[in-house]
């Protein structure tokens, strides 16, 4: 028993939440007697042994006995398995690495195998003209009303009539999802209106604004001569002067803000409000289709040259240009591989391009047959390791790492869509269609399930 007391307490605390080793599970350790039972091996050696097991073996192991089940829940083992898969860093609040692995495994399985459930929201009295997807909620709106939908519970949380405050631009979620904000015209005066989920009422903020841009943490409100930065609780951070009216919405990524006024495209540091640089190029830039990534500003030109320009945000200077095939329609960034971005072209395909070598790495054909004339599609989006494109009345999903087409789904007409790790949401003719990729693995007889779905995993609860 003395030997067992000397074993590391932290390992047992991660297994059972206690520093005391249960005698009925382990028993006294006697190194004079040969044993083939994992229960009689020092705990640190046992954990080292199970680190070589696959996720399926760990789940099988959990069904043997109570001790093996506790051992199979070792947090560092599941963390190591997660890192071996080269998945993105988890952002959820799940404490257990097994739960994080399970969530990502189910997502990858459903996306790879095209497993999803489809449901629609159709209301003849409420034709949807605009929507926004944020986590598991949808903000759907038309000219007179907006609705907040909970996709997990599949119910409408709020119906908000803003006829008293006619919107001048589309409503957007606040960064934390606990409110909606939009510019309105009250007696022909541009005002910012806020819907408070807790108070369940519309509130005039007494802030003059005509455009709103929201990032993960910051709300930027553009007026005619000023830019107001606020946090997710709508507390004012700072004010940045602008030269005349800003053209369109701004761009925010990390601690960088970009906007386009009469003097050109400018870059600011959000945390300090200090101007970083101003774009020095005279090339005609499509600011609306540009992106900010790390220290780079990447944008297509608005002329017929079909050139994509890459600028340094620190200096504002043009670093180099990239010429993918066809006319650039949209630029997306693959966050898992910082050197690659995706550009959508009218040549009927999307391409991954290495920013360092400026060479095309992969082509994703949007249609299976050669095109007669330009390709017609709405947009594409990157979700983790998957690329989703919509066009020619069809959704297509590729795996970016190897360029494999995973599945293709036909729909009635071209639609606007948004996607995250759990949902694809599209809108067509006022009808919202949701594709739910959060399907769980059914827990049942292990042998039967293993024969039926060899690639699937039964997670022991």
Secondary structural class: alpha+beta
Helix content: 10-25%
Average pLDDT score:
76
- Please state the CA-atom Rg, rounded to the nearest Å: 27 Å
The tally of beta strands, per DSSP, is 32
Largest sheet: 4 strands, antiparallel
DSSP strand content: 35-45%
Q: What is the terminal separation in angstroms?
A: 31 Å
- Helix segment tally: 9
Uncertain regions spanning at least 5 consecutive residues: 1-27, 369-377, 442-458
Order of neighbouring strands in the sheet with most strands: 1-32-31-30
| The top level CATH class name of the domain at 2-112 and 443-452 | Mainly Alpha
In one word, what is the shape? globular
CATH topology name of the domain at 2-112 and 443-452, in short, is: Monooxygenase
Any idea what the CATH architecture of the domain at 2-112 and 443-452 is? Up-down Bundle
How would you describe this structure to a colleague?
With 461 residues, this protein is an alpha+beta fold. Among the domains are: 2-112 and 443-452, Up-down Bundle (Monooxygenase); 324-435, YVTN repeat-like/Quinoprotein amine dehydrogenase (Methylamine Dehydrogenase, Chain H). It is built from 9 helices and 32 strands. The strands form 8 sheets. A 4-stranded antiparallel β-sheet has the order 1-32-31-30, with no helix packed on it. A hairpin with a 4-residue loop joins strand 12 and strand 13. Mean pLDDT is 76; it is low at 1-27, 369-377 and 442-458.
Keywords:
single chain; 461 residues; alpha+beta; Monooxygenase; Methylamine Dehydrogenase, Chain H; 4-stranded antiparallel β-sheet; 9 helices; 16% helix; globular; disordered N terminus
